[in-house]
């Protein structure tokens, strides 16, 4: 728990205290100003890159600063400083207030509440959980494990970690702190056979230390999985193109839901009336078997989890779609106020140099009643897609295109031949109505996701059980 009587460490290290911040925030709270806040951040990051058994790159970074935001109606003034010190704070407030056209007599701000919680993850510095020699040795073991198959010609493995401390103080009298560790391991391989070359990749991570990759030889399992995908693709045939049933695998394939559905439920797109889901609350927007939630407080040190969002609001489990009906949006304070709703703990920003936006955390579909084998058996001819490499979506229309990194044909109710180059083309809202079977094997991804929006990147999680879409356009290299 955080003690309300303690001065925040980010202020103490800068020879500042809460009383000073109260005074500065008070100076900007004049007539017409609805809200203001300060976001303090200190972060340390590193990355290691091993290519073909040799360390090719090692980086270290350190950042420290504060972002100041002033809101006047729908207008936001924002300024930031790359240092936490008194003059920088004052200058940033003046700049942000000028953008929001602030003037007149100010009103006092008094910090009266501190956001407390039981942390979802350890307050460790990942960079110190293993010595550098052990980190390099881990990557070398990954390289050797991947090369057990003589068809593997190239291996690239990378390890990255970040230790971040944040502090939020706002004009409503709230103060909140968090310590956020994050680690990630990525493995890419290139395999060659009979003159054909294919790739396979996998990555994963969590909010904690590097030691997770040593437990149960997790890092070595990543190497084996990357090799497996590459070898499957070596045997893959051309993908038949056409409209057909598609079965999406559990876990990572939920990135399709994240892009094609999730972004359209973020509050800024709703309040700007640019989302296809605008004015559809309590309407049927998906099949009855679909329940989708966004859960920022998902336990287990998930990559997308946060104790508090970047406005200091406690994260929660928000039911977005329940039994096919739209129930809620993902909201930051600004969107919630303009929509006359409550914030959901989804305000996120890449750093102190960025304004907060309503963003996803861990977004997933709840489990259904069917065994995965039943779902496959229900398809006479179609596509099974257990892995995706990426995609894009138009928020306004809901139209999307996604590329698979691993896919198979389903023939007479059985998974048969691997295929390469399959793309899924469709419309997010329409696809939701075409989901006919939802499996009982809900799984979240391995901790690989990073979401981009308006130039800002933040870590996220996705998940789903195996599910069947009755009809979807598959783009390929061969006509049916």
Give an overview in words.
The chain is of the alpha+beta class and 480 residues long. It has two domains: 9-234, PmbA/TldD fold (2-Layer Sandwich), CATH 3.30.2290.10; 238-479, no CATH class. The chain contains ten helices and 26 strands. The strands form five sheets. Strands 1, 2, 3, 4, 5, 6 and 7 form a seven-stranded mixed beta sheet that branches. It has a six-stranded mixed beta sheet with strand order 12-11-10-15-24-21, covered by helices on one side. A hairpin with a 2-residue loop joins strand 1 (35-51) and strand 2 (54-72). Helix 2 (18-28) packs parallel to helix 3 (86-99). It starts with 8 loop residues before the first helix and ends with a strand.
Helices, strands, pairings?
Elements: H1 9-12, H2 18-28, E1 35-51, E2 54-72, E3 75-81, H3 86-99, E4 113-114, H4 132-146, E5 152-170, E6 174-193, E7 196-206, H5 218-234, E8 237-238, E9 240-248, H6 255-262, H7 267-271, E10 292-295, E11 317-322, E12 325-326, H8 333-339, E13 347-348, E14 357-358, E15 362-365, H9 372-377, E16 381-393, E17 399-411, E18 414-420, E19 423-427, H10 428-433, E20 435-438, E21 443-444, E22 450-453, E23 456-459, E24 461-464, E25 467-475, E26 478-479
Parallel strand pairs: 4-6, 8-18, 9-16, 9-26, 15-24
Antiparallel strand pairs: 1-2, 1-5, 2-3, 5-6, 6-7, 9-25, 10-11, 10-15, 11-12, 13-14, 16-17, 17-18, 17-19, 19-25, 20-25, 21-24, 22-23
Helix pairs in contact: 2-3, 4-5
